[in-house]
Amino acid sequence: MIRVAVAGAAGRMGQTVCEAVEGAPDMELVGRADPSLGVELADVLGDADVVVEFTQPHTALANVQACLAAGVHVVVGTSGWDVDAVRGVESSANVLFCPNFAIGAVLMMRFAAEASKHMAKAEIIELHHDKKLDKPSGTAARTAELMEGDPPIHSVRLPGIVANQEVILGDVGQTLTIRHDSIDRTSFMPGVLAAVRAVGSLTESPVVGLEHVLFDD
Ligand SMILES: NC(=O)C1=CN([C@@H]2O[C@H](COP(=O)(O)OP(=O)(O)OC[C@H]3O[C@@H](n4cnc5c(N)ncnc54)[C@H](OP(=O)(O)O)[C@@H]3O)[C@@H](O)[C@H]2O)C=CC1
Ligand SMILES: O=C(O)C1=N[C@H](C(=O)O)C[C@H](O)C1
């Protein structure tokens, strides 16, 4: 059994992750850390093999550092923090940061990267719910990083949306649109569980992107 603790357990993602972990036959939920539950990450680290981190841009780095100091592997979904800050940190534990855990979003990023090699220009439009704190989204920033030509990013924040992204590529007389829609937070759960299963076996750390877990190439 993989013993899993969740940081941000009372949040939109954290609650969904707790349910997914409780439903996974090979995992045990051993801790829920969140200010609104009165439980700090330090209180649950001792019981966990893996922490799943879905908090806020300004809290993620300290939580990841605490996991590394305690030798507990950490799967991070929080966007808007600097993963480079944990490069070179000595630890027996690994960091796996996935800007987006939805398989369709991972494929969208891959297809956009490939298309950008062949079309003249591109722009990214990301659309999220209006409670999202960071802008641009982690997915859009990562997509732009993977693409050629430094595409501009446009951010939309509105009630009624979960998470959508369009990458529009243009060339003479044509456009290509690659779009992904998460209509429910359960879309991220198979990816989160795959990351929890894989993080302890990574041969380097930190690793960025679920594609390193899902695909051979
Ligand atoms: N990679 C991916 O696939 C996805 C990533 N995300 C990202 O995940 C993050 C969380 O999103 P979401 O669940 O919607 O946000 P929420 O605001 O709903 O949840 C964040 C939770 O973390 C809590 N929290 C704050 N500080 C700490 C701390 N130091 N330790 C533990 N918990 C803490 C918050 O408590 P309080 O409110 O009391 O401060 C809140 O309950 C965002 O950065 C979002 O962009 C979201 C969806 C998918
Ligand atoms: O805040 C969200 O909801 C999401 N955040 C991630 C991001 O910033 O890309 C992943 C997904 O888009 C949902």
From TrEMBL:
Pathway: Amino-acid biosynthesis; L-lysine biosynthesis via DAP pathway; (S)-tetrahydrodipicolinate from L-aspartate: step 4/4. It comes from the Bacteria. The keyword Amino-acid biosynthesis applies. SUPFAM superfamilies: Glyceraldehyde-3-phosphate dehydrogenase-like, C-terminal domain, NAD(P)-binding Rossmann-fold domains. Keywords: Amino-acid biosynthesis, Cytoplasm, Diaminopimelate biosynthesis, Lysine biosynthesis, NAD, NADP, Oxidoreductase. (S)-2,3,4,5-tetrahydrodipicolinate binds at residues 129, 138-139. NAD(+) binds at residues 8-13, 77-79, 98-101. Catalyzes the conversion of 4-hydroxy-tetrahydrodipicolinate (HTPA) to tetrahydrodipicolinate. Homotetramer. PANTHER family: 4-HYDROXY-TETRAHYDRODIPICOLINATE REDUCTASE 1, CHLOROPLASTIC-RELATED, DIHYDRODIPICOLINATE REDUCTASE. This is 4-hydroxy-tetrahydrodipicolinate reductase. It comes from Svornostia abyssi. The lineage of its organism: Bacteria, Bacillati, Actinomycetota, Thermoleophilia, Solirubrobacterales. The gene is dapB.
